[in-house]
Amino acid sequence: MRYAVVYENTGSGYGAYAPDLPGCVSTGRTLEEAERNMQEAIRFHPEGLREDGSPIPEPTTRAGMLPVESAA
User: Fold this and answer.
1) pTM of the prediction?
2) For the chain, what is the mean pLDDT?
3) Which residues contact 34 (CB under 8 A, 6 or more apart)?
């Protein structure tokens, strides 16, 4: 499965979360570290969901980048 992940620059590193996996978050000092940490978080998150008796959500979020012209 492939889940969409959002990465945010925090000023001192990066935060990451998967919108389709509530509570699945990670951080890193660099974008690359945040990506590695998030891959691990996504691998282990379903285990916690199973232990709680919760379903594992299917990936449904789609992300993209759109060019926007400045209004100025």
Assistant:
1) 0.84
2) 95
3) 7, 13, 14, 15, 16, 26, 27, 28
